[in-house]
């Protein structure tokens, strides 16, 4: 095996091993109803996703054009809702259904700066902060499961609700974080809201338009 491939294999094995340890630790904490073990789980998560250093911050800026960013939105939406890319693209083009691509709808700058792996420095030590990486998103989804009361099960306006074992596991995690079950069912909302989708500045950088999500809602906020 070539040295570069061997190094990649070792790094992958290390990541998988760490993920498995965290999986086991979270399950053990839940089964024993141990707050200490749950705190250990979050402490390890925080250790794995520290705030960016000044040197790391300088390397983050990547300029993306609108088509590339739109493709990223499609991929993330399809994965989030467990649907195909084709269905997302089709829905985004239907009249009156532009919410799929609100992030790109208005305003429309020609270029975007997208900060990947955003881990901001915070000015407080408590409560502790963690970053929702792809690995931890998968881990939490596996742990929470998907026992649900489907959308509109009680009445036509009722959102989907978790139930059974999924509710118990949600309540256990909510000793430390807040979670929401997806409005349409079949997914979890794991972000700490409000979540910012984009920030658009004017030419003088004196004003900013913030596109944000708030659980099942969202909107725009203006800052000076």
Describe what you observe in this structure.
This protein is α+β, with helices and mostly antiparallel strands and about 220 residues long. The protein has a domain at about 60-115. It is built from eight helices and nine strands. It has helices spanning about 5-30, 35-50, 55-60, 65-80, 85-95, 100-105, 135-145, 165-175; strands spanning about 60-65, 110-115, 150, 160, 180, 190, 195-200, 210-215, 215-224. It has a three-stranded antiparallel sheet, with no helix packed on it. Strand 8 (about 210-215) and strand 9 form a beta hairpin. Helix 1 (about 5-30) packs antiparallel against helix 2 (about 35-50) and helix 4 packs across helix 5 (about 85-95). The longest helix is centred in the N-terminal third of the chain and has 30 residues, at about 5-30. The protein is globular and about 55 Å long. It starts with a helix and ends with a strand. Residues about 100-105 have low confidence and may be disordered.
Output mean pLDDT: 80
How many β-strand stretches? 9
Q: Biggest sheet, open or closed, and with what strands and sense?
A: 3 strands, antiparallel
Structural class designation: alpha+beta
Which percent range describes the beta-strand content? 15-25%
- The parts where pLDDT drops under 50 for at least 5 residues are 101-106
Note the total helix count. Answer: 8
Gross morphology: globular
Termini gap: 56 Å
Along the chain, the helix and strand elements come as HHHEHHHEHEEHEEEEE
The percent of residues in helical segments reads 40-55%
Give the strand order, joined by hyphens, for the main sheet: 7-8-9
- Work out the radius of gyration: 20 Å
